[in-house]
Amino acid sequence: DRQPIIAIDGPAGAGKSTVARRVAAELSLVYLDTGAMYRAVTWLVLQQNIAIDDECAIAELANQCKIELTPSNDLQSPVRVWVNDIDVTQAIRTIEVTSQVSAIAAQSAVRQALVKQQQSWGKKGGLVAEGRDIGTHVFPDAEVKIFLTASVSERARRRQQDFKKQGQPEVSLEQLERDITERDWKDSTRTVSPLQKAADAIEVPTDGLSVAEIAAQIINSYQQQL
Ligand code: C5P
């Protein structure tokens, strides 16, 4: 018998991380950022100078690397991410990793390795998992499935804020809109587990809503399910 699972999916920059962490904190559930795992593998690939299309070498890397996510209860500080005992919390958020991650996340062996890990972490439930395929593939039996959306311009604006907060170099809104559109396109047209709203997911358009308002909607859906 497992504890409930909340699945939160949606495109890049829809506010999934901030919202999912807040919901997890308020309901005392564990927060699982699956995007961080794809980013960690991408960081390793770049660091080891493996070609992005060398699916064989990348598959081996994805199967052998050790990924750790250390949840932080402090909503202001980032969840720490470790790969093979290296702290990559900041390194996985660079533009370089961000621009390559979709190509790596499209490789079926990579997905198999990471999904297996996610499902084993989620065996007992009691978590808020966030990504692109949580409601459709990772935890298809999740009690609550949320699909967060927002306009491209709103998402670019949020990303710019994130970069600013992290002290990263300034990126123009036009550039961010182009990057987001490209990543959405790659994530939703790939053959393996594309970004898709699960049939039983609740769509939550987030333009103009605060994090608190979005979190409240999700918590409300969760409480109705129980
Ligand atoms: O959510 P985040 O922007 O960190 O995700 C980075 C990338 O990882 C996404 O653009 C997508 O290519 C991939 N991803 C995925 N499946 C997930 C989570 C993330 O394919 N469940």
Automatic annotation (TrEMBL):
Ranges where the Cytidylate kinase domain occurs: 6-223
Q: Region Cytidylate kinase: what ranges?
A: 1-226
What are the subcellular locations of this protein?
Cytoplasm
Tell me the domain of life. Answer: Bacteria
Q: What does this protein do?
A: Catalyzes the transfer of a phosphate group from ATP to either CMP or dCMP to form CDP or dCDP and ADP, respectively.
Q: Which family does it belong to?
A: Belongs to the cytidylate kinase family. Type 1 subfamily. In the C-terminal section; belongs to the cytidylate kinase family. Type 1 subfamily.
| UniProt-recorded name of the protein | Bifunctional pantoate ligase/cytidylate kinase
Name the gene for this chain.
panC/cmk
